[in-house]
Recover the amino acids of this structure.
């Protein structure tokens, strides 16, 4: 077995979600005997920084590249370079407008957020005011999750009103302050959707600090969210399968290197989980700490 | 002949201070009109009004008989009014030439590009006309205060103003440069330029001025012809009393223990093998021309600059001094010649500046400061040195130049060092206060303190020193007894050795 | 300190110093008035407490930055140092399982220690503060991730921990005003810092260094030592901020912190402290920090769209400072 | 400019000015040598070009910041101004469908215009540069989102647009070294800025303002006008950066930009320009920007884990500046 060198350029690094992707990638690397590096820019708006990372990764001449594009177009010239150098590219998390990536390991964020909207509607009894605290106004995941949630509410639940959508950069503290402001501005609010891990934790913090009883639906997992769901502070959350995304990306890269054919999309799936379903093996498997 | 400029009934107040009240002044073409007064009398303020820095609160300004408003420095320039400010106003990161022509740089290629060559040429021409040996391309920040002052003078000359205000231009200069300046002033006079001349050096007034106007406490006292009025009269107009001029008494200190001994001090080209000693109770004068290296010696002893070699002994013990802190610890204090950059924390108030070197004394357990005690001490010195300030909480930068100098002196008096090095201690200080400071220095010496006075004013050196060390180009060229003659000092101060040696070094 | 209000007004009308000092709050008061009129929810006790709570972390960081800025320096590492201290506390409490007081001490000691290092690099190696603290910011950011294993450290095993910021001593005594402890800690730190600045030798040297460092050195003062002391003190204060944020989030979040320095410095400068050193007040910094959080809270309460929030915030920061400049000019 | 090499070395050994100027690069050269030895991939043409390309945007922003910093000011808005200019270009080219040259002009004009506004706020209203440009940073950040409708504007309808940064004039002539146009633009801007700083009145007043603003004013110079001119020039340069980044990404990304000011200022300070004004060089800034990108690239090529990358970067920034200080001291 060769010791393949695989470079993963992600959209972020420090966030737990990306750390879980990294963990999945590392797991596959250990399994299949590859070396994996994992890097991502500071924030999901730094498209050019991601290009620099991709360029440096190309200079390293890895055997394969995994790439989670912040912008669906910006990387086209660099991906062409990879193709010219016969380096297989696997897209993960979000796709790119290009036929260069051999496959994409991803979740449908719009559908996932729509599921959160359905659950929210169910929990608040189909009417009332809700709000969204999201992480980023311009990143793909930020847009998809906000749109997925808001559009679903609009289409399917005419009696529910989304009164506020605000962005806290995924920073727990900032999201806490935002959630508190929303709660104080809308005393009759029924629920808040926290569109990523940091936002969701912030929302629960805000709720707790104000002793509010609103319904909170989160996104992703992590020890804190799991704890909140356990304690009832959060009703439930959508989880993707970040470990699976990382794992499948590396696995696909190695398959490609071995000349195997790949499906165009590897759907890693998403689930809604709450206190009752958290223990299910199929869900427990995709939750991370 | 019509007056070039007339100031009538000028008034100006700052928060808490009435700087000027009903002041009159006029200037004829081709005359040198001296403006005299104690520190804080309002001389600089009046001139700042004339040069567009401050707006007056009351009164009228007439230029060639016509009332005018001078709203900005630029307007003043356009009216032909130039000024050399008391506080150096130079851009330290720029060269001498760039400073002199700021705002009026020679251009080329249709005004788009600066013509640096023409700039340096024009500057060189001005320097030549002043007999000043200075490269136009030298960064101003690396010059001594004296050279910076010469750059300021060159800058003022370059404007070719009809009215030239000189606010203490010679405070940092010594006799040679003063003589050069007077040649220039006489030339300008002949050209019909009117000059306002402010100085605390009384002898200069006699030498060059035609009329003298005296101010006291922001008010106009009177105008007298310089030639026919005695110095005593002018001084009494200034201070409101006559001053006694005490003669030098040289005490016999030969039996007193040596307080400070410097052995074979070297630092680059500025200090070459300097050795001397000062005894307790002795005042040692350190004389020399500008750039002789006196300041460098003082700074090296004080640990402000590193030295290449040499030993310093205090009270018979060799001390290792590598920072000013070490020096102060060993009982040495140093009053810098450049109060603005090295003496005052200008943003802090008078009280804190006076206490700055002695804060430890006012610190109670737990790091707490005894502000009450600090205030008492500050008020004592404000009284003793007659520092003119509304209160001890006035910011130092708002004081007049001479009063700032007094604050720095107070700082070192309070520190109570056994060995005091005063570099140009009376720079910008009025006659009355000067004699107070002389008395103070004598009293300190009588208490057994060893004092080194660096001064570019020979009369001051002669008036104070029990012994006089003379430097030239970094070397100590001789040691004279107190009461030596000016000629003897000048002889040693010009004993150049380097002319020959330099050739060898360069090869 | 260097108080301009010490002398009476030059114009005919004499305005008392106290009134003028009150005017310094004018920007803040204007904001509060406008938001109160615009939304009935703004002046609710709970919202006022929320604003104060939101000020606590930035306020404490800004106080640390104030000390450094008065010396004429700058500290870009306040945000990541806060995080580093939080992580250290996490290690002490959660990984080592030591008792709570040790965690508190560890955080403040870690901050002080890092401040000592930064101060030494600045004072002894003469590295400009901007570079020294920029480097330190990056180093601490990396170390926080390394030490924590790039994941949050939770304080679930230390039940009292969340009380540091979220509990309410005051509320226990006067239930009507449950001021969170975090806010009281902010005021405590502010009071202590103001005391140090105005009443102690350290404070006096802080101002003196910023006013004219060379003159202080030539007065025989060991400036290196005092400078290091200032950075160490600021570091210790960042340690307090680390405790506050960790307690509010019940976890040490290793990835957070960068960017916080800008808010802290902004609060300092809005509060009238000059970046060139020599002047500044703690109360000004508090006002600056409050202006920032009132703005953020008020605009959110009014549900102003986020992109417009930043536009309005930028505009008002400029206007608030301009109003303060006008006030001082007319003094 | 304010060249310290003007006086001969005081020690016995005379070191030529040219050699000493070379030593200024020493930090950069040391890094390059170490990385070349550590990885054979580092010194490949493609990687060197990647490093230069990665320097281009930050380099141009840093040059803008250099001008402002030499006046003793600071510009925190360079990053978001760049974005704002990119968005304006996007509006002109994609929304209005105007021809490419107009888009280029629009970007530079937008930058200059914003610079004029910032400069006016600073010079006329006397708002400290930190606050004025902080406010402007936020305002521009918000406006970019508002104007673009919070989504990227693509330049797919303007085919030549990507050539601005990604094409290669040089490569068309000498195919062996396909230096991207973006890099050539960086050098061009650097050359122009150096020329302006050393040869024109604007440059002279830039240094003079930073050296002693009051003295310049007392010399009868209209300091407000020149100060505004400096901020406007810096703004125009940010417009160039906006074109570069938009061309590299083939889109105007409205959310990008905040945080970039810190990298730009870091490059300036690493390059030896003093934050207190009066001194600085464009070449120093270029070296500073290169140090930052060489470090980032080299550590990535060596597959150093990201958390350690920041630790190493922080340490090396401090060391590089310290080495430069030692060099100057021994001059
Ligand atoms: N900007 C200012 N704010 C407050 N007070 C000031 C200001 N400028 C000058 N003063 C005060 O006005 C008075 C006159 O000062 P001025 O500088 O004119 O004195 P001067 O005659 O030039 O003294 P010196 O001989 O010491 O230079 C002094 O008491 C000084 O403290
Ligand atoms: N900061 C400096 N940088 C470069 N050269 C300096 C500096 N300070 C002094 N010099 C030079 O060192 C020499 C000695 O200057 P110093 O100030 O010691 O002379 P001085 O005898 O005290 O004369 P002055 O009357 O000017 O005070 C001069 O040639 C001067 O130009
Ligand atoms: Mg004066
Ligand atoms: Mg001297």
């Amino acid at each position: 077995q060769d010791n393949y060198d695989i470079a993963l350029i992600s959209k972020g690094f420090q966030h737990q979600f990306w750390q879980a992707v990294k963990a999945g990638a590392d797991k596959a690397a250990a399994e299949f005997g590859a070396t994996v590096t994992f890097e991502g820019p500071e924030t999901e708006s730094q498209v050019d920084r991601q290009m620099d990372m991709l360029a440096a990764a190309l200079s390293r001449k890895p055997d394969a590249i995994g790439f989670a594009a912040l912008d669906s177009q910006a990387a086209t010239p660099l991906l062409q370079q990879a193709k010219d150098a016969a380096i297989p590219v696997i897209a993960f998390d979000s796709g790119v407008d290009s036929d260069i990536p051999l496959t994409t390991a991803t979740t449908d964020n719009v559908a996932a957020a729509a599921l959160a909207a359905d659950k929210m509607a169910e929990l608040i009894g189909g009417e009332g005011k809700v709000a969204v605290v999201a992480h980023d106004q311009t990143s793909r995941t930020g847009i998809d999750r906000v749109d997925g949630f808001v559009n679903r509410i609009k289409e399917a639940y005419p009696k529910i009103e989304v009164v506020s959508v605000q962005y806290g950069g995924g920073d727990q503290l900032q999201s806490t302050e935002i959630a508190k402001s929303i709660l104080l501005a809308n005393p009759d609010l029924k629920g808040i959707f926290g569109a990523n891990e940091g936002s969701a934790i912030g929302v629960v913090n805000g709720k707790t600090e104000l002793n509010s009883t609103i319904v909170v639906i989160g996104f992703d997992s992590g020890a804190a969210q799991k704890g909140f769901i356990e304690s009832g502070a959060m009703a439930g959350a959508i989880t993707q399968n970040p470990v699976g995304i990382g794992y499948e990306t590396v696995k696909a890269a190695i398959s490609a290197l071995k000349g195997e054919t790949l499906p165009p999309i590897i759907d890693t799936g998403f689930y809604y989980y709450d206190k009752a379903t958290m223990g299910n093996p199929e869900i427990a498997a995709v939750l991370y700490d | 002949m019509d007056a070039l400029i007339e100031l009538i009934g000028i008034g100006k107040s700052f928060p808490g201070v009435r700087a000027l009240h009903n002041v009159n002044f006029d200037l004829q073409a081709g005359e040198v009109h001296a403006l005299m007064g104690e520190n804080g009398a309002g001389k600089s303020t009046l001139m700042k009004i004339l040069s567009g820095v401050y707006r007056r609160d009351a009164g009228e300004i007439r230029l060639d008989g016509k009332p005018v408003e001078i709203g900005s420095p630029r307007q003043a320039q356009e009216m032909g009014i130039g000024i050399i400010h008391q506080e150096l106003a130079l851009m330290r990161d720029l060269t001498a030439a760039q400073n002199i022509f700021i705002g009026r740089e020679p251009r080329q290629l249709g005004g788009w590009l600066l013509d640096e060559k023409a700039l340096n040429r024009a500057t060189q021409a001005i320097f030549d006309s002043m007999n000043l040996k200075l490269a136009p391309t030298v960064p101003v920040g690396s010059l001594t205060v004296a050279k910076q002052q010469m750059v300021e003078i060159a800058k003022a000359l370059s404007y070719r103003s009809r009215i030239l205000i000189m606010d203490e231009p010679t405070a940092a200069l010594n006799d040679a440069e003063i003589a050069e300046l007077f040649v220039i002033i006489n030339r300008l006079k002949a050209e019909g330029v009117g000059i306002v001349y402010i100085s605390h050096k009384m002898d200069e007034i006699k030498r060059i001025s035609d009329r003298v106007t005296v101010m006291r406490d922001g008010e106009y006292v009177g105008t007298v012809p310089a030639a026919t009025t005695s110095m005593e009269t002018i001084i009494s107009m200034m201070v409101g009393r006559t001053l006694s001029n005490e003669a030098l008494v040289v005490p016999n200190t030969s039996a007193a223990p040596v307080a400070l001994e410097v052995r074979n001090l070297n630092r680059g080209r500025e200090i070459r093998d300097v050795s001397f000693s000062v005894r307790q109770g002795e005042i040692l004068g350190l004389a020399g021309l500008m750039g002789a290296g006196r300041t460098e010696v003082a700074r090296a002893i004080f640990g402000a600059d590193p030295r290449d070699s040499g030993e310093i002994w205090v009270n018979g013990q060799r001390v290792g001094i590598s920072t000013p802190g070490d020096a102060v610890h060993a009982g040495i204090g140093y009053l810098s010649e450049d109060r603005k950059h090295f003496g005052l924390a200008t943003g802090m108030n008078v009280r804190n500046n006076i206490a700055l070197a002695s804060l430890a004394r006012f610190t109670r357990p737990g790091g707490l400061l005894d502000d009450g005690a600090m205030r008492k001490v500050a008020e004592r010195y404000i009284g003793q040195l007659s520092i003119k300030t509304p209160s001890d909480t006035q910011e130092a930068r708002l004081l007049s130049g001479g009063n700032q100098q007094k604050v720095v002196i107070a700082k070192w008096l309070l520190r109570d060092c056994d060995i005091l090095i005063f570099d140009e201690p009376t720079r910008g200080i009025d006659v009355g206060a000067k004699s107070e400071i002389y008395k103070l220095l004598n009293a300190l010496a009588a208490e057994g303190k060893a004092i080194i006075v660096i001064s570019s004013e020979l009369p001051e050196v002669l008036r104070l020193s029990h012994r006089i060390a003379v430097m030239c180009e970094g070397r100590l060229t001789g040691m004279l007894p107190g009461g030596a003659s000016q000629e003897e000092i000048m002889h040693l101060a010009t004993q150049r050795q380097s002319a020959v040696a330099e050739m060898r070094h360069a090869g | 300190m260097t108080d301009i209000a010490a002398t009476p007004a030059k114009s005919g009308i004499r305005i008392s110093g106290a009134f003028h000092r009150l005017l310094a709050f004018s920007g803040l008061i204007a904001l509060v008035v406008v938001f109160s009129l615009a939304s009935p929810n703004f002046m609710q006790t709970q919202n006022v407490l929320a604003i104060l709570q939101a000020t606590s972390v930035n306020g404490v960081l800004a106080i640390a930055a104030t000390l450094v800025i008065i010396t004429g320096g700058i500290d870009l590492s306040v945000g990541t140092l806060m995080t580093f201290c939080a992580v250290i506390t996490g290690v002490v409490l959660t990984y080592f399982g030591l008792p709570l007081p040790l965690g508190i001490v560890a955080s403040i000691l870690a901050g002080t220690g890092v401040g000592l290092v930064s101060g030494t690099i600045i004072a002894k190696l003469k590295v400009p503060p901007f570079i020294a603290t920029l480097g330190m910011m990056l180093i601490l950011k990396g170390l926080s991730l390394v030490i924590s294993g790039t994941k949050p450290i939770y304080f679930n095993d230390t039940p009292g921990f969340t009380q540091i910021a979220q509990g309410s001593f005051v509320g226990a005594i006067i239930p009507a005003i449950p001021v969170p402890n975090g806010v009281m800690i902010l005021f405590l730190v502010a009071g202590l810092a103001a005391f140090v600045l105005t009443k102690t030798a350290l404070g006096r040297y802080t101002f003196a260094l910023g006013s004219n460092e060379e003159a202080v050195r030539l007065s025989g003062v060991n400036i290196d030592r005092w400078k290091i002391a200032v950075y160490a003190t600021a570091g210790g204060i960042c340690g307090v901020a680390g405790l506050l944020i960790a307690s509010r989030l019940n976890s040490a979040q290793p990835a957070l912190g960068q960017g916080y320095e800008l808010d802290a410095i902004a609060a300092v400068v809005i509060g009238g402290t000059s970046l060139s050193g020599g002047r500044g007040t703690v109360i000004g910094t508090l006002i600056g920090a409050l202006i920032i959080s009132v703005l953020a809270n008020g605009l959110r309460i009014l549900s102003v769209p986020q992109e417009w929030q930043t536009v309005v915030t930028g505009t008002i920061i400029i206007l608030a400072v301009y109003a303060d400049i006008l006030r001082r000019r007319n003094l």
